[in-house]
Design brief:
This protein is an alpha/beta fold. The chain has a single domain, classed as TIM Barrel (Alpha-Beta Barrel). The chain contains ten helices and ten strands. The chain has helices at residues 3-8, 52-65, 92-102, 116-119, 136-142, 159-171, 197-206, 215-219, 222-235, 261-277; strands at 28-30, 33-35, 41-45, 69-71, 106-109, 125-128, 149-152, 177-181, 211-213, 239-243. It has an eight-stranded parallel β-barrel with strand order 3-4-5-6-7-8-9-10, surrounded by four helices. The chain has a two-stranded antiparallel ribbon with strand order 1-2. It starts with a helix and ends in a 9-residue tail after the last helix.
Length: 286
């Protein structure tokens, strides 16, 4: 039995010796928000920052609907090298201005250990994408940073491998790890990925980590985002991270899975009803 299993009093079907996890709290603080308690956190924004107009419009709208944190990609790892790779450093000034104007904590993906110095003063949470779950050099580097890390599950990653990756961060000194279920690759081809709702319930019952759900990547279809987000909330997720774009047809990356502004507003209304039924509520600033 793993150290984690002993600490939590459960028996697991794999051995993940993560003694360091005994020092990890069940909540992670991001600004005035606490992720991992009974309150539900919504992170929203475009897949990629494309312009000041696009990012500011999206940020103001999702904030007005009740989103607590803002997402926006600046460095993008893309399977096809000929597709949009993000604005990179050219997006920094846009992100900084919108973040200051809205007062929202900002989450963005880091793709290389060499980006830490550039991003550490800008982002409030470092996102490790699916392709980098096994990038141990990056995970070790983030273990030495005093900022929370959102660790997405690899698209073919076992839960045990996911937890090992979390341990790389924690063992190097940073216990503020938030897991993110974003769908896995299976034999099914009807959707972009297969969203593993089992993983949410399992993580909540058997580990100390907070967990967010990403129904945008989990389905790859905007019409499926809302029902899967509601399912994730019912399964016990601590929040969701979703892609929103004012004009998805014009998006330079992943527009097919982005919610329109009205769709996001509708999602927030439905989430509130589901959370109320579960005796939960949206996380709000303290």
């Amino acid at each position: 039995m793993s150290c984690l299993a002993k600490n939590l009093g459960v028996v697991t079907h794999f051995e993940v010796c993560v003694c360091v996890m005994k020092n990890i709290t069940t909540t992670v603080q991001v600004g005035s928000y606490s992720i991992g308690n009974s309150d539900f956190v919504v992170v929203a924004g475009p897949c990629s920052i494309e312009s000041m107009e696009q990012f500011a419009e999206t940020a103001e709208f999702v904030k007005g609907c009740g989103a607590m944190m803002l997402r926006g990609g600046m460095f993008k790892l893309r399977t096809n090298p000929n597709t949009f790779q993000g604005m990179g450093k050219n997006a920094f000034s846009i992100a900084r201005e919108v973040k200051e104007k809205t007062g929202m904590p900002f989450i963005s993906e880091i793709t290389d250990p060499r980006q830490v110095g550039d991003l550490v003063e800008l982002v409030d949470v470092f996102q490790v994408g699916s392709r980098n779950m096994h990038n141990y050099a990056l995970l070790k580097e983030l273990g030495q940073v005093n900022k929370p890390v959102l660790l997405k599950r690899g698209f073919s990653g076992l839960i045990s491998e996911w937890l090992y990756s979390a341990e790389y961060v924690a063992k190097n000194g940073n216990n503020n790890v938030i897991l993110c279920e974003r769908g896995i690759r299976t034999f099914e081809t009807a959707t972009r990925n297969t969203f593993d709702v089992n993983a949410i319930a399992y993580i909540k019952q058997n580990t100390p980590f907070p967990i967010l759900a990403d129904p945008s990547h989990g389905t790859g279809a905007s019409a499926l985002v809302t029902p899967i987000a509601l399912a994730a909330a019912a399964a016990g997720a601590d929040g969701i991270i979703v892609e929103v774009h004012p004009r998805p047809d014009e998006a330079r990356s992943d527009g097919f899975q982005a919610l329109t502004l009205p769709m996001f507003e509708n999602l927030m209304k439905k989430l509130e009803r589901v959370l109320t039924a579960l005796d939960r509520k949206f996380c709000r600033p303290s």
